[in-house]
Structure formats: structure tokens, C-alpha cells
Fold each of these.
Amino acid sequence: MTKQSSFKRAVRERARATGQRYTQARADLEVANRQEFVHSRPFEQVALTAHLEEHYGIGIHSILPIDDDPATRPRDSWPGHYPSTLVVKHVDGQQWIARIFSSSADRVSRVQGDAEILQFLAAHDFPAERIAHDDPVTVLDGKGIIVTEFLDGGRPSADSPAVWHELADLLGRLHTLPAAGGAVARDGGAEETDGGFHVGRPKEDLAAAMGFLVSVEDDVNAAAREKFEWLRDQVETADDAEGLPEALTHGNYHPWAAVGAPGNLAIVGWAGSGRGPRLPALAWLLRTAAETKSTENIAAVMHGYSEHVQLTDDELDRLPSILNLRPLWLECLIFRMTVNDGGTPAMDEGWMQPASHEFAERVAAQAIAALRN
């Protein structure tokens, strides 16, 4: 079968499963195939469906990445964004989420740890996704799969300071949960979206960022060389948050990690969770809050978080540098994507640029001022 005929078959299957017209399904699949991590965790859908049906004794109507189907696609997401997070629709109407960890770097023990952390959160009544079965982790061809309950409500709008306050309140609650052994004590807090090659504490984001740059170093043209060298220097001198107070923390904490209606949000996406410095999660929430209605949203975050946690002087002093930790990871990823697409990254664009340091100082100053009001 030719590559073209295989693509057409995939489009037809997608259209049939989602109810889309053929032309829209084709456009979405073309977008999905261009995404950075769409092939980082490959799996064979027929085999996966058969595996889940046999293991759990269920009938599956359809199984698709969550952003393939417009009916389940999270707000502001796009096809191919979450290729390994699948919606499993049962023939009886029930829905699960299945996350597939199938890259060469993924460890089944890590997936089993994800389930253990979700069970810990449930035992402490923390609003998070819940495992969908008493045996939530299975193994297919040596790769781990975890199933959780599908949560209704979708991703909340981040337009309201009340949402930012609720997210910060939940983060404060998370950071005050009691210490425990097992997976709850494992290293955590890194982004963990690159196929499992960089998991653990936030400093792993810096290792991943350097990897993004190194992978395209030979392809960087003269016009992009200044930004390449500047980003490389930023990664080499970045604050990794080590030595700061620690807690059980989330690896990508901002509104895209929440599902549900405001006032009743639950947090999802716990693959990067574990024990690590608590400040990076708060800093990423602050950094994203500052994108719109910055003064109100920053105040809402600080007021919500401080209901549970009082930041130390060291955390306040290092907040400006930690505010740029995740943006630096993102910018190095975008740099690689741009170079691979034949583009030329510019110094004055993106999540991380020279002006980002002054921006972080302003955000930190607003955050500290909010604590005093």
C-alpha cells in the first residue's frame, strides 16, 4: 500500500470516528502530523484496542487522541497536541482516558508510580483525575498504559481572576499534603513531554532544553546564530531551583492542567509529578497568569497560594530567575521546531528573549507586592 493511500485510509477512519467531513478530518490530520511530539510515543491502535478490550472485558466503540475529536478537544488545543492521551469510548457510553507510554525511554515503573500518586491524591480528597479501574496500569509490548476516568467540563477559560485564584489554592493544597514513601517521594516537577527522556526534577527541563539546541546546532544559519548562542548561555546559567523547599508537585501546572467548571476544577496530567522544589510550579502559574490581566491575575495567584503556603525569603529572592525556567525550555523547543521547519528564529520574539529578564523582575515585584496587600 502506498503512503498516499494509507493517509487517505487514516483520514476516512478519522472522519468516521469523529463525525467530521472528510475535508476537515484531512486538514486536522495534516496539522497533527506536523506536531513536534506526535511520533515520540508510537503505538498501533488496533493492537491497543484489542489489548484493552481483553484485559478489562469491555467493548470499545472508538479510541482516539483527545484532540482528534472536536467533541473532546481541550479549549485552545489543536490536532496532534496530545497524541498519546486517548479518549476510550465504550460501547455502553462510558468514557475513559488512556495514556500510552511507548517510547524507548518510558519505564513501566514510572507509569505504575503515576497510578500510585493518583491513589494518594484520592485518599487525601485532592481534586484530580481518578484511576478508572482497580488495575489501572497494563503493559502492551513492554510499554505501560494507564487508564483514568474521563472528566466532563473541558478546560476552563483563563479570563477570570477567580480561576487563577482557584488554581493557586489547589496548588497550595497540593504543596501541603503530607510526605509519603513510594512514588509520592520520587523525583518530580519536570515537563515530561519528550518521550520520557527527561523526567524527574525541574533541572531536567534544562537538560532537555540543551538537547533541543544541540540537536539542530549544525543547521543553524548565520542569521539565527546569535539567538542560538544566547539561548545556550541562558540554559548554562539558569537557576534550576535546587536547594529550595520541596513538596509533592505537578510537572506542568497552569490552566491547561485543569478540567471542569470554575469552583469545581480538577487537575490532570500527573506523569511529571513527584517530589521536587515547589517554586517552579508556582512560577509557571504566575508566568502564564501574567500573559493577560497581569496585575489582577498575579494577585489572585498569590492570594490563593498564600492561604496554604508562606514562601521563604530564599524563594522570594530567586523567584525572578525561576519565572524564566519553563519559558526557557519552551523557547529552546520552539527554536528547534523553527529551524527544522526551515525558519529563522529572531532574538526579539517568543517566550524567552533578552527582555524576559526585565519582565520576570516586574512579575516578581507584583507578586511580592500582592503578598503585602
Amino acid sequence: MVVRREQLELVWRGAKAVVTHRAVQVGALVGAVMLSLWNVERVPHTSVLPAAIGLLPFAIGKYVLCPLRWHALSASGRTRAWHVRAYAESEILGLISPWHAGADLWRVHRLEATGVRRTSAIASVALDRFVGAVGLIVAVAVCGITMPPMVLVVALGLAAVVLVAAILVRRRRPGLAGSWPWPSPKVFTAGVVLSIGYQATILGLLIGALQAVGDSVSAFQLVAVFGASQLAGVLPGVHGASPREGALVAGLASIGVSWTAAFGAVALTALLYWVAALLFGGGCFLLRWRGWFKDPRPMAALCAGGTGAGLIAAAPVPD
């Protein structure tokens, strides 16, 4: 057990060193953006206005709704503004890493910098991921009337597996479960609602991208294809070339969109992700580097309370 813990600690330190290394960040960032630009250049026709209109609700969903969900679930003691900035910074690292893992590592790192214990920080980010996945599954289930029965069965099956696993862990390992943040039903429901709202903004971005490449489809068909492609996101991949993008291209082609337009819309969507990330995340990095924002001093004590996360005892420190 001790050897395994030391191995996990070594892996964690190595991953953290890679994620926080500036040369790695810049290199991966440039490569990922160039890949997105190369994909968009292959599209014969694009229009800026529909893409910009679709980007606006997505930016609100990604950089407002998602941080608010994390803030409600984590009970980290930090302000909403702190969570918004830390989340925006993490998105840049998430887009250049498989499975968006870099974003999670950065959020854990930022929480640790404020004095939150590593186990509690990991639990906070894991809970946010879990609630986001629940929101996705609920959104897919709501769209079930327009989706193939098999896709709906897979979505509900995944939800059932996650729920059973959580119940078993809580019953058989009460000590482990007690160290994890278990939010109140009200907070959990609010998190799921925010997740569903975020999924709706991604759909708006996709609609704008389709309009930008000169194509359009039925809203019901698009919802079905979008829901099915989101399920492919459980497979690892790098942003812009992941199974989710591949499934979305194939799904759009299956409902009448030309392969060129489908590829172009998905490539444009991937590029618009970068536009928002560089604007908000890059801006937050720059302002913090320039000293506009300062991290609060580490907090010394931990205790249970709040929404059930039980991460800290000290009062929130103003930003």
C-alpha cells in the first residue's frame, strides 16, 4: 500500500510538472491552434457573423455557468470571481491535453495554492466533473424522443453505472466517502441545471458554425446528432481531433449535411473554442501575471460544512 501510494505521488508530481511547465504549455498551445486553423482553411466558404453570434452564448455557458457550478459544489471558500478566473485559466490547458485532463490538474493546483488539501481539491474537481456528466446524460435523455433507442439506452446505462458505483463506495468505504464532498440535493440539482444550460450553449455554437459554412438542418435532427456525439466524449482524445468531433462529423453527414460542410462546421467549432479560451483564459493569465489579481494566503484549517464539501474552515477571502 505504501509503495503504491508513493508511485501515485510520483505520477502526480510528474503530471503536475508537465502541465505547469511553460515551454510545454506554449508548444502544445501553438500546435493545437495551428491544427484548428488548418482544418478551417479547408472549408471553401465561411461567414464570420453567424459564428460570432453562436460564440456569445457558448462563452457565457463555458466561462460563467461552469465556474458557477464548480463554485457551488466545491465550497472552497473562494469567491465566485476566483472560480471564474481559475476555470478560465484551466480551459487553455484542457484544450491541449487528452480527455481535458490538464484543466482538472490546473484547477487542483490552484486550489492547493490557497491551502486546500490535495485530496479535498481532487474531490472538489471530481465532483464538478461528475455533476457535469450527469447534466450531459440528462440532456441526452431529454432529447431521447429524437434519438435512436440504442443511444438512449447507452446514456441511461452509463448514468445507472455511475450511480451504483457511488452508492457502493459510500456504503462499503464510509471513511473514503466521508472525505469526499457530498452536496445537498438542492446544490446537486442546481449543478445539473447549470450543466444542462451549458450543453444548450454548445448546441447554439454548433448552429452558428453550420450557418457560417452555409448549411442548416432541422433542429430536432441536430439535437439528436449532438447528443449522440457528446457520448463519444467519454473516449480519450485531443480537442479538434477527438472521437467526439469524429462522431459529430459523421452524424451531421447522416442527416443530410455535406461532408465538406460537416467537417468545416466541426473544425470551425473547435477553433471558436480556442477564441474563447484565449480571450478569457489567456486574459486571466495575463492579468494575474501583471499583478492585477493576487491569490489569497493559504488557509490553515479544514472542516466540514457548507454544501457538504467540507473543504475549509476559514471565511472567504475577498479577491
Amino acid sequence: MPSAPSFDDRSSSQRFPSPGDESEQLRATADALREQVSELEVQARARTRIALAEGVLVERYRLANAEAAFTLLRQASQRANIKLHQLAAAVASTPGPAPGAQRWFSGRAQHPIPDLAALESGTLDAANQGEVLGAALRRVLSVTGTDMGNVQLVEGGVLRMTKHAGLSRQFTDYFAFVDGNTSCARAASASHQVTVKEVASSAGFDDDTRRVILTAGSRACHSVPLVDDQNTVHGVISSHHARPLNGFTQRQLQALHTTGRALGTWIKWHQHTVLRDALEDLHQLGRASRQ
């Protein structure tokens, strides 16, 4: 008489994942989808600003198409060593040159290079944005005693991630643009330093934001506004900490304030000098393309 078929418990468990395994797979899929959505949002925002600048240039210099405008933007941004999206945003927001004008900023005043000694990084190339922002971030991380942090600059009314250290791709994509109720946004809005001593229990984050911060290994954070000599906020530097914070000493807070002021004043100089030099160069490239 034939025997009844037997079932191997191990093969059965392999064919049918446990509820725990399924939950883990669903969480991983959800995280991957969130990351893709964040990346697409970054690309969409950047492309919208560049497309707007392309349209301005096509009309102003009677260029053949948007591709020709993009070529000019890329050339001017590379020569000035600034990000293409920053130049595009400036093109869209800065009043254009007078019709037929040889120069965009005729009679522009020259501003002296601000003192960057507060960054404690020795001699810096003031025209090199990446170098200066990197030095400022290192200074803040040194004062606050951590290796995780980021720099965000104001662009188009929101904070845009510009420099970071020790943070995951998921974190930097999620916070690529910030205009919500986070510590960095509050620091920018109130123009003073903001400390979140414990992210897990803070009321200042929604559930998704809190999850991304905690997943990145940050249990606390501190945000320093970047304020110039006219009290205009140009951005924020934030430090992130693997453990909850008790706060900082007055000496640390003063050092962070000094760093934020020095960098804010430098950003103002960079906008009025390096960025406008790039716009002037772009104007000359545009005029030459019509000849």
C-alpha cells in the first residue's frame, strides 16, 4: 500500500515566509519607495528652476532653443565654480540687464572679502563655495562634538541641502528641500539657535520626519542660523548627535553664533560678488551667441 506523502517542515517554511519576514519585506519596499519619491522630488524641483532660467535666456538673447541656454548656464557655472542650480535661480530672480546693455551690472560696487578666521581653518579660497561651506561645517561639528551634520542654504524661499557629513542617502534626499516644521526651519524663521534634545519625544516633527532622522542614527540635533550683518538669514548649519543632548555651554553657543555670523556675512559677499560675476559672464556669453 503506497505511503502518504510526507512534508519537509524546512521546505515548507522556505515556500511560505513567516509573518515577520513579510513585514520586514514590506518595510524594506516602503523605504525604497520613499527614497525614490524623495529623489524624484529633488530632480523635479531642480529641473523646474533650470527650465525657468532657460526660458529667460532664450527670450533675452534670442537663442535657438533651451539646449543652447543650458549650455551657456553650464559654461558660466563651471567657470565661476558654483552650482548650476544656484546660477539658474539667480537668473530667474535677478532683474535683467537693460535691453542692449553691454554690461548687466554697470558701476557695481566691489565688496571686501569678509574675515573667515572664525571658521578656524587657516587660509581659505573665499570664492570657493564648497571649500568655505565645508570649513564651516567642520567647525560646527568640532564645537558640538559630533561627526554628523549638514549645511542648508536659502533658495527660492526654502532651505536646500548643500553640504553634509556622516548622514545617509535617505536622510539627505528626504531633507534636500525643507520648508516645514523642523529644527532647521525654526532656526531660520526665528533667527536663533534651536536645540532638539531628544528627537524621539520632540513635538517638532511629524512621524515620517522623525522616522528618517532616527533611522539615520540621530537622537538629537542643534541648528545654527547663518545671519549676515544686516540680520538676513541665508541658511542653517545643523549638527546631529547619536545620543540625546543635555544642551551646550555658553562658550559653545557663543562659538556657534560667531561661526553662523561669519558664514552668513560670507554668503552675502558671495552673492554680491562671485554670483554676480557669474551672471555678468553669462550675459557676455549670451551677447556673443547673438553675433
